[in-house]
Amino acid sequence: MKCVVTSHNAAGTVHALVRAVLGSALPLHIRCWDGSEAGPPDAPVRLVLRHRRALRRLVWAPNEIGLARAFVSGDLDVESDFFESLSSLERILKGSAGPRDVDRQTKWELFRSALRLGAIGLPPKPPAEEIRLGGPLHSLRRDSAAISHHYDVGNDFYALVLGPSMTYSCAVWDDDAKTLEDAQTAKVDLVARKLGLNSESRVLDVGCGWGTFVIHAAREYGAHAVGVTLSQAQADFARKRAAEEGLSELVEIRVQDYREVRDGPFDAIASIGMAEHVGLSQLPTYTAALYALLRPGGRLLNHAISRKAGVVGHTTDRTSFINRYVFPDGELETLSTMTTAIEDAGFEVRDVEALREHYALTLREWVANLEANWDKAVRLTSEGRARVWRLYMAASALTFESGSIGVNQVLAVKSEDGKSGLPRTRKAWLS
């Protein structure tokens, strides 16, 4: 490939460099720190390089981490529609042939251009929002630190993003759901009905978040509900919420790891958006612990994101954007891996419901909430943290829409002598 960079303005040079690296014409518009612009004015992707430091970030990490560092730090910005831009960038990168046939002269021209732009130099310090955890993977202390990194951002920030329900998991957009709040209420009620809750039930919510499910279970079904979380901020919020609704006698919130719960048996267990933190190595421990905490005939509802079989890059990659900025040590398993672990613990799996499209809709609502309250979100946390969440949620919505990841509710029963205690039809136990 012959490509000599001759432009003398920053944007023109960057655009030519990108073309040389990716080896194709690009529907990409670039504006640089010197005010120069290059590329089609009507391009679907319009990038702004606010500082030459963005280039050094990409030189030292020419992957999603480099892009993430440039965006989170504010060195790189997006002027075009955020969802369309992310989708288009992914298509551009996937369709790139790459610099397969770059001769020595072209390499020298590329290096001189990068040097002139200030792209050659020491690696910039990563944004403060990036984290690397120490200690044994999925130990109690390390898991606690991972949860704290993600969830102790501040309750007020989460309220801006999640809305009044304070529910941080996939909503269910049934025919009656007109708002995000409606859809989240539909979700927790669906879980309660699948678990068969009533005033005689004692239910455990593993990873209870801000208490939405346990409060719904107590208020609407009269159930005695115990919620456990590793986030002190979540626990404080959930306790206050339960007290304000007059449900303190029915709702107990603990800062506790699921592996430390000892006061079973429970009639039902809900795990909503928590299993993603467990890790493949700990799945047998997780399912065995929940099995031991249930009475015979008790039900488990495991609601978890899954990766598509054969798709890599969504689990155990410690260098990914998700692991460095969002969910440290998070792992997505396939649906078959999860159901196998549940069955291996002794459960009988009775029902699986896929909600992939519902999560894409939920994430788009969260992004809209964040963008509508951007200035306040920045004041409550930092601009970098707000940027992390915008990128993470928008990219996740697109990934759900593409089918690379899904989310499923698995209903399982601790059957006794072959008796599940469930009605024969789905309609009967959901009524």
Structure, described:
It comes from Amycolatopsis acidicola. Belongs to the CFA/CMAS family. Keywords: Lipid metabolism, Methyltransferase, S-adenosyl-L-methionine, Transferase. Residues 157-398 form the Polyketide synthase-like methyltransferase domain. InterPro entries: CFA/CMAS, CMAS, MeTfrase_dom, SAM-dependent_MTases_sf. The chain is an alpha/beta fold and 431 residues long. It has two domains: 10-117, 2-Layer Sandwich (Nonspecific Lipid-transfer Protein, Chain A), CATH 3.30.1050; 140-430, Vaccinia Virus protein VP39 (Rossmann fold, 3-Layer(aba) Sandwich). It is 45% helix and 16% strand. It is built from 17 helices and eleven strands. The protein has helices spanning 10-22, 53-60, 64-73, 82-95, 104-117, 140-151, 155-162, 180-194, 212-221, 232-244, 283-293, 321-326, 335-344, 356-372, 374-380, 383-402, 426-430; strands at residues 28-31, 37-38, 45-49, 76-78, 202-206, 224-229, 251-255, 266-272, 294-307, 348-354, 405-413. A seven-stranded mixed β-sheet has the order 7-6-5-8-9-11-10. The protein has a four-stranded mixed β-sheet with strand order 2-1-3-4. A hairpin with a 5-residue loop joins strand 1 (28-31) and strand 2. Helix 2 runs antiparallel to helix 3 (64-73) and helix 15 (374-380) packs across helix 16 (383-402). The protein is elongated and about 75 Å long. 43% of the residues are buried.
